[in-house]
Amino acid sequence: MSKLAADLFYFPNLEFFCAILDYDEVVFCRGQEFRRKSFINRTDILGPNKVQRLTVPIQGRRPRIPEGKLLIDYEQKWVMGHLRSIQSAYGKAPFFEHYFPFFEQIFQKEHSHLWDLNLDILTLCLRFLGIPAKIVLVDDPAEIQVEKDIRGHMSTQEPYTTRNYYRATPYFQLFGVDFEPNLGVLDLLFNVGPESKMILSDSVKKH
User: Hey, what's the torsion of the CAs at 115, 118, 178, 83, to 10 degrees?
Assistant: First the structure.
């Protein structure tokens, strides 16, 4: 059984799903330290004007805090902002009405911890994408025993082209003249629906 260790992102991008696509189990560690400039609380969508980054605000300072203990800051009205941005970007997309209510229900739970929010989102995305990978959770990095470990590989500071997981495979997008690659998974699901897994398979970078 093939196993891979990865970071638990907020609406992961296509690079993430290409990286995990062929593994039976994906391991996530609650006890690993929070990394700045990661996608743990960020995702990108394509709006009417440009690519827009959505960020989940986190409470307090975060030196050396385990990712599983990150608390979401609800004093900032980010939930309504994210929902409005998603609706503005994808309200007219072919599969918006099919998937959006499920994600809206996740937001309505108002998770206290970012980890739990991301886990619910990923579980739903794997189901919609038809990816059978089993999610395995551990508390201590020492517990991780896998064939491949991609934790820390994907950063907001470096383009996906510097890594060997994803190649851009164009699909239908509502906005823009040129195709925008490697957006958050919402862009793929809302625009192409059941064809999403096929697009991901075609987007895996061949070594």
Answer: -110
Q: Give CA separation, 135 vs 122, 127, 138, 148, 196, in Å.
A: 9, 12, 10, 15, 20
d(CA 96, CA 9): 21
How large is the angle between the packed helices 96-108 and 185-192, nearest 10 degrees? Answer: 140
Does residue 30 have a pLDDT over 80?
A: yes
pTM of the model: 0.95
Degrees to nearest 5, angle at CA 116 with 124 and 56:
95
Contact 2, 174 (CB under 8 A): no
How confident is the model over 59-88, as pLDDT tens digits? 987 678 999 999 999 999 999 999 999 999
Cβ count within 10 A of residue 25: 16
